[in-house]
């Protein structure tokens, strides 16, 4: 399972801002925005319920107050 | 454009190991491996060449000595 965690749009992202600034200084001016998040690759045994995987992602890998979660579940 | 950066398989990943340990203590024993990486979402204006996007990803967002890059380019 792959889980991507990104800061909610209304939360400021200093890491992404720093990357954007560096890209501009290096001449990559076509990049107009950068958001930096976390990427988790989980090896999961057997066939856990979608519910369990969602719970892992939303309560353990991300902080739902400030972060959004994108789940990429393996094909059933 | 979305860029996922993950440590190469032969590089140890203490963050991922810590998450794996926490999941085990919380009873999620079906998860047998966790790798933690970085997830970048870039807003790009116009239609830059695939070459430029690859260069940004591989030389500026990742450290190619220890990290692998996965590019998700927008549809042409």
From TrEMBL, chains A, B:
Organism of origin: Geodermatophilus normandii
Protein name, as recorded: Phosphoribosylformylglycinamidine synthase subunit PurS
InterPro entries: PurS (IPR003850), PurS-like_sf (IPR036604)
Keywords: ATP-binding, Cytoplasm, Ligase, Nucleotide-binding, Purine biosynthesis
Cross-referenced Pfam families: PurS (PF02700)
NCBIfam families for this protein: phosphoribosylformylglycinamidine synthase subunit PurS, PRK05974.1
A GO MF label: phosphoribosylformylglycinamidine synthase activity
Gene Ontology terms: biological process: purine ribonucleotide biosynthetic process
Domain of life (superkingdom): Bacteria
Species classification: Bacteria, Bacillati, Actinomycetota, Actinomycetes, Geodermatophilales
